[in-house]
Amino acid sequence: MMSDSQKKILIADAIASVGVRKLESFCKTDCDYSIAPSTLVENIREYNALIVRSRTKVTSELIERGRKLEVIGRCGVGVDNIDIEACRNNGVLVVNSPLASSIAVGELTIGLMLSLARRLPYCDKEVKSGNWPKSDVRGYELNGKTLGLIAIGRIGTEVARLANAFGMRVIGYDPYISDERFRELNVIAVSYDELLMQSDYISLHAPFTEETKNMIDVDAINMMKDGVRIICAARGGLIDENALLQNLESGKIAGTALDVFEQEPPNASKLIGHPNVVVTPHIGAQTVEAQDRAGIDLANEVVAALKGESLRWRIV
Ligand code: NAD
Fold first, then answer.
1. 225-284: per-residue pLDDT in tens?
2. Same domain membership, residue 37 and residue 177
3. Residue nearest atom 4 of ligand 1, based on CA coordinates
4. 122 CA distance to ligand 1 middle (Å)
5. Strand partners for 78
6. Which domain covers residue 269, as residue numbers?
7. Which of 12, 128, 164, 260 could lock onto 56 through a cystine, CB 3.0 to 4.6 A?
């Protein structure tokens, strides 16, 4: 049997250097952040572990060629780029580091909400252009407003905590968590329709699944309050972008802030150019702290997998 020090790890997508150092201290670790798919398929037979983010596609061919592969480590959340069935069928573990980005995405969500409420991107652009639109800008306070959270997992929990601190009334819809959990988080559990009807701000924190695809569509928007503001830092595809644009143009939706899009980068569309739309380039997890945490959490998990120890975030 191979000893730990004889094992080899390939990091195919960059992770934080603290994570790289942790892996290097365990066994030989190669980093090739621009490796071509064909070279990866060629070389994978040498490695016991492969570390990826979203760039590298872990196909069934790759898994089958990786005769020594014991574990795939996906830095961050989401495993859409990994053929999970092929990993399961070939006895390859899949682990990730899902907790690392919750604070970063939660804080960005509040930042996006404040950007909409106080029109911060507009003010910034105007002042830099030599204008002083003080009297045109009358924003809104978050305090006292109703925030509807669609899904209250790790990130939704963080947003609930912060929104409560801002004095918002937080309501939530998540069919998979208990009433007790809602009470612990000081979030009022409501049905989906009630959430749509009562919220001044709606923030989405659900995964992208068949069930959640286009969950904000024309019918959902029709049920919302006039002047609602919608924030999405979860995944593109949860909101029907055409319905969103139509309702921004009609004034039914007062503003929307998006960190994620159906297609990334998005086409230079009417939606992103709309004056009441604030956009960011999928930066939810892009903080120094979240990236360091993701790298070190993943490295610890991969080392545990290679040592045969118990795992915290095993997907397969
Ligand atoms: P999580 O798995 O902790 O929570 C997801 C929650 O969604 C769960 O509580 C689940 O019960 C709920 N849910 C599932 N289906 C639902 C439905 N039909 N209706 C309502 N709730 C439903 O996930 P998380 O770590 O909180 O991540 C939430 C989202 O944020 C995911 O889409 C993730 O991909 C995304 N994300 C974005 C960024 C970014 O950079 N913007 C970074 C990390 C995660």
1. 999 999 999 999 999 999 999 999 999 999 999 999 999 999 878 999 999 999 999 999
2. no
3. 153
4. 30
5. none
6. 102-279
7. 12
